[in-house]
Structures are given as structure tokens and as C-alpha cells.
Write the C-alpha cells for this entry.
Amino acid sequence: MSRAVRSFVWSLFLAMSVAGTGAGCAHLIENRAIMAFSENLKAQDLEGLKVVTSDDFNKRALRTATALEDLKILRIPDGKTSIVDVEQVSDDKKRVSVQVGEDKKEVFYELTRDESGKWVIDDIYLKQKKKGIEAYKSVTEQMDLLLTVREFLDAWAHGDREQVLSITSPKLRAALEDVPPSFLAQLTRQVTKGKSSSGKFRPMASMDEKIAVVKLPRQTGQTVITLELRKGKWQVADVGIDCKDEEEKLPSVLNIAHAVNRCVAFLTAYHSEDKKKLAELCDTDFFEGSLSFADLKQAKLPEPQLPEHELQVRLRGNRADFTLRSESEFVQVDMQRAPDTSSDALPEFVVSDVTIYEIASKQEMRLSAMFTSHGMLEVFVNALSRRKLEEIKHCSTRDFSSRVWDKMTEATVPSMPLEGFDSTDVEIVSASFQGALTKMDVLQGGVPFTYLLRDERGKFLIDDIQWQVSGVPASVKSTLEILIPIQDFAAGITLGRDPGQQQQALDMIQANSSNDFNRMVWNQSRFVPNSGMSADTFLQSPVRSIAIDDKEVVVNFGDQRYGAKVLMRREFDRFIVDDVILIAGPEETQRLALRQSLRTQLASGKVQAPQAIVQASLSTTSDGQVEQAVHQVPAKPEKLYPTAANPPRELDHGKPKKPKKPNEPEDLEEQGASDEPDPFADILQTEP
């Protein structure tokens, strides 16, 4: 049946119906148009609906074969219709207020004349209530929105590239046009798969004048489509997938497209070695610390259009993580979202690092590590060979600096066992990259070392050095961390020879002594007792061994003929000196426990304060007085005491001893000793 015939039949049918009710019935024309629409809708007659509606309604609300299904979604009321009011808007427009059904639901119809002069439905307004607010929504606009969503899903599921782009807003289209074709196909599959188990189209829409959000249920979560009304037509502005599954989750197609385009631009600039463009596309630390001076040919990255790599993208807050996968490698591109300059600014992502994982060798290599580790190592080795602490700290991690280098001074660093690092002749044997950690095996002056570099704020800095030294930890950081309190303790003893520096000397000693050592000895005196003043020379012997457990450390210096044994205890998250045993020979009588000896002498009140500055190296000024600089380290003991036959002596010049008559007892006041014979008296004695 043709449209003209169908229109004639419906007009005749309605005229006869009205005639049966009386020719004088009010609102005859309006009632006839509304009844025609209701009957065709009830009969699910799409062609009949097109006859009794305007061209605009047809084009926007009835333009697809599935339009009747979407009209059901809107739930237009049916039942007995009573016209409440008719407003003549113009000669060709009327607005009719009706009540439908037993509940008398209020509906507004807009009528217009078609080309033949017949009144037809131009739009319908349904009352909706949300969060206590009532509003009337246009059926034409809602149907246009729902049909646009259907067309979008159909185009993204089955259409070609142009069909995919044609239904999107200008911003989204511009972003999608530049993404690699393989990734666009992957993106459209991800959005359109995972329909709800029922397979039914059940959207939930919220809309205002220019923006609409439509949520479609999926097997897990929901697809969220944001649309914009532009020139009377709805266009998709963004799409997201909200679900718990991280593999399926998709926060924003627009943001992902922009991030992908930035990634492709980075790969393009990298392949063309365009460092000016790379500076725009990369994080400042990454570019200036790695790429700006690098030979980019040293590391090959995938082709920009990804012909051999599958791209996976994850947006996490302000991060975008890219995985470019091929049969031989994974390439991870890390990107950070730059701060937006305005509320409507497009998201800008910058590359913060790139990691290459080779499947065959199982080696993980960061570009930042590869390009910076060699240069950083060279600078560090040069600084360490010259013992330049500020330069050393500039190349070291915070942890290495705070635990080791910050605790040294230019005066104390020479006392550390760093002679193996004097050479700057470095040969790199191998390098391994493990994400944030890089290991470089080298021969330095012919000696093997392993330098560990760790990523910190976009730069790879020296975090530790591994060495092969018998009896001590393999970690230089751990070894020096143990030795620093001992050498600071020794430096305090050295400073204690100066009568004018007693408080400063005690502060240094106490800061590196255990609670027990301080309580029993150092807190009991206002000066450094002269009996302990040669301990620093013993502690300058070469380190023989370090034994570490959870609570205690034992450090041995020198050998059985000359040296010291230091007992350390963990307090305040570090190891500090608990006692020092001085060794002047192989016999027990040639060993002295410093803590107990000083405690005994303090208890007897016989200790003496230094009367003159006496230096362990015994260097003198022109007037014959011995000179000692603040924090100056005493000379190495093997220079002071080259043989066991020449043992160390007490270096403080006390009062000269009187010649002792045969069988005459010692003058305890002058000697500062107890009644018991001192087994260490031949080692620590006052020299006249």
C-alpha cells in the first residue's frame, strides 16, 4: 500500500470515527492527529508513523529500521487520551496538552501542517523527574540521540575507517585520524565487543541542551558514550569503558588517542634524530639527562606506524603506559600527562622513559640508563680518584650520600680504604640493565669492580660499588658505613690532644659511642683522658676483617702484633663504637680494653687532661712545640711504628717521673695508676 493511499485510508477512518461522536466535537483536528500516531505506534507500524508525522520527525526519530524498538525505550504513554488545552502558536503550529490513561499522565504534542495542509505530529514532550526536578524532554531529540548511538556502534563494529570517523565530533575525529590503522581497528573492537548477555539495547541516557551521556551495559561494567549536539546533530565526543577488569577498562578514547599520537610523534622524531622535536615531546629530565647528548643509533625503537608491533595502552591517572609487542621484544614507553593550561585544553603527554625488553636474552634496558650510565660512571670515577666529596655526592644517589659521603669531610676521607679507586683507567667489561638498576662490571687499574647505578629523578646515579676484598662486605657502601663512626671516633681522640678543643673532641667521641660507653666513660669527664689518646693511632691500621650480624659488628684492624679490635652496637639505626681493644702484641698482656681501662682510671680520679698539643706524627713547629690541626688525621701507624720492637707510647707529655729507688713503691698520684700492676704499662706510658 502506497503512502498516499495509506494516508487517505487513515483520514477516512478518523473522519468516520469522529462523525460517530458528533460533528460538533471540540478539537477534532488535534484529536485525529494524536489518535493516528497512537494507533500506528500501538500497531508497531513504522510506515504508518511516517505518514502521520512531519518530515523533521521522520528524519531524526524514524530514520532507521530499529526506530520502533527505541520508541519503546522512551515509554510513550498509551491509553485513553483527553485533550486539556490547545495553543495556537502560529498558522502552521499548535501545541496540544493531553492527559493519557487512568493515571492521566501529562504529555505535550506539537503539531504542524505538512505540504498537503494536513496536521501531523512534529514532536512530543514527555515529563521526566530526576532528583526532584521536573523537565519535559523532546521525543525527537531523545530518538535522535538513541539512533545516533546505534549508528555509532554499527559503524565502529562493521564500518570502514571513514564511517568510524564520520560520526565523531571534530576533536575526536582529529585525534583518531592520526593513530596507526592497526591501533584504530583494535580500539573499535574493544569498544564494541562485550555486549550484555541479553544482547538487548538498553541505554540509560542523561542529556541537557548540548551534552548527553549514554551508558550501555556490558558483560562486565558499562560503555559510557559522551555526545555533543552540533548544528542540530548529535556527534560522539568521547567513549569510555567503566569496569573492574584492567584489561578491558578504557577511561577515555580521546585521551588515549592523544597519548598514542604523542607516542607516534616521539618514535618519528627518534628515528629522524630530530632532537629539537624530542625536546618538545619528552620530559625535561629524560631529554636533558639522556637523549640530548646520546647517539640515538645505539638503541633501535619500533617504526612509528607500528607495522610489526601490537600496541597496548593503559591510562592510570596522569600516566599513560604503552607496550609495543613483537616476536622478539617488548618496548615500554612511559608517558606523563603535562599540567593543563586551561579547562578545555587537550591532554598533553610527554615521554618520561623507554624500556626495551629482549625476549631471547631476557635483558631489560632503559634508554635513560643506557645513555647516562657511561657518562655518570666516568665523572664519578674521576671525582673518587681525587677524593672530591662534593663531586662524588653530585653523582651518587641520596641513599649513598646520606649513609656515606655526607658523613665524611675532606680531612677524614683519606682515612678510608679507597686506594683501589685511585686509578682512572677504567675498562667496561659488561653492562646489564634491570629496569631501575644498571650493573656495570669494570676493570679499574686492573682490579675488578661492579658499579651499581639506580634511577633517581630521571638520572642514573651511583648507588653502590661491589668489590672483592677478603674479610669485608662485598658492598663498599656497607663497608664505609661501618668504618665512618670508627674513624670519627679516632678523629675525636686526635682532636682531644688540643687542650683548647676538649668539648668539641668529646662531642665527636660521644656522637660515635654507644650509650654504655658514654655512660661509663665519656659522660664522666670534661676532657679526653690522656690514657686513651693513642687509641687513634691503633685505629689507623689497615682493615683486616668486618663481621656483621643484626645487632653487633666486630672490626679488626692490623694484625696480632699491632692493631685494634672494635666492637660496635646498633643504636638509632646505625652501628656505633661500644668498645676498642688495643693490640700491641700477640700476648694477652699486650692488649687493652679501652672502655674498662678508662672507667677504672676515672673511678680512681687519676686521669689527666692534656697540658700541651701533641700530635701522633710528632711534627713540630719552628719553636719546638708540637702542632695539631683540627680534624687532622694522624699518620698511618706503620710509618710511626715500623716494627714490633718499636711499640706505640703515650703521647701526652705529663710530669716527668722521679728516679725510683730500689724497692720504693710507685707514686700513684704522679703515675695515675692503681695499686695493681698495669699489664699495659709498657705500651702506654708517659714519656719524659
